[in-house]
Amino acid sequence: MTLTLQLKNCTVIMQYITKVSGSNKWYYKRRIPQDVQSHYPDNKDKKIVKSLKTENKQDAIRKASQFTREFEAEWAVIRGKAPILTGTILDKARDILERNGLPLSKRSKHNELEYDFFTDSLDESLPKEAKDALHLAHMNKDAEATNELLAFYLEPEQLAAIAISDGTFVLNASTILEEHLKNQKWLSNKKKSGPYRLAFADLIDVLGDRRPSEYRVFEVQQLITYMIEERGLKTMSVKRRMGCIRAAFTGVTKLYELNEDKQHNFTGYDIPNLGDDAEDRLDFTAQQLLALRAAISVDMDEIWGMIAVMMETGFRVSEACSLSIADVHGLDTAYPFLTLHKTPFRKLKTKSSIRFIPLTGLALKYVRSVSGKWLFPRYIDEEEKQVKSDNGSAAAKKRIQSLLGLDAPTSHSFRHTMATRLRDAECPEDMRNEMLGWSSKVSDRYGSPSDISIKARYLEKTLDWQGQGWNRVDN
Question: Is the pLDDT of residue 312 over 50?
Fold first, then answer.
């Protein structure tokens, strides 16, 4: 089945689009060429069928065109007829220019022959209907239709290569995102890149894929309103997403000296009632801590051990998961303790997160039982030098809820509960802040034997906490 899309003064015909029985959505359906079928062993009927996830004909044609380009590029690589391009759109565009003997900036009159060869090769790669439509647009001197057709049929990196060579290239939001992630070495890091991709998806969906200087002040506020009212995000989540956009725009425009786009409007925006919709995180009650300790004492496996360490130290999930036996000190002394500092596996949230924490109770018992390199090896990826803290958090949540019920606090509440326990043990505020990594400065004795022994005594007192300060708010 084919569909047609009417552009100005020309018509685009799109193949491989169909509908299936019982659905109003369009699908992309295409037979796999015989010479590449062996690379798709799971496609028993030798066909590719993908939902285009839209009922709109124009959207379906555009998405189908993208699928066609992707599959044909993939098959060209399989056949050995095309290079494998990796990296951002800008990286790919630069690679295209280099392979065609063109400079990585605006071409000079000495490069016109190479440019003609380059554009001729692009023209040859287009389907006949596209060539006919482009010829008609050219004969009519219709630049708008020409640009629409090129945007429809060419890959983003091909369009970028043309713009660079023409001296008209600007970085739109989508390209800035990829450049920022590449510069931060986060392209393949889903945890680091995820918040940025979510933020930019909202930006492009609501305001379009434009250069930073083109977004007006009122549009930035429209995006904030959309995130709150349509996406249902909390205001602090909106703040983080807007911060991702600001960081990427500011970093890339400064790095590449894009002076016009440095003056973007993703600074100084207003998020109405910021923080007012935050939900207080519940503390654990004394009874819940007793129930957890009882369960841990019966069966102290790795997950219960991790819960014990978080419960009796106030460590964050990521901090607990990253602990190694090298972080353990003084097991043969009166006051064993853990050190928390930056390592290739551990990126501390703040500088004040560097701390010395005595081991007490079941946390100490678990650490004494460890014989390997890591305290919680299942959450360490040594090859990638990554801590799988999300997995640790999910496992702890599941284990806690299995004992205390679905409405129980999560492991993130151990920190706030520890703050309450230390306060009720009459631990001085500056020492509480040191132990929990909230202090901007530390005492001269920080980490000394006397410092460790004093903190250990306060932590030992928290083991008998009766919940007298539970959910209390300081004035």
Answer: yes
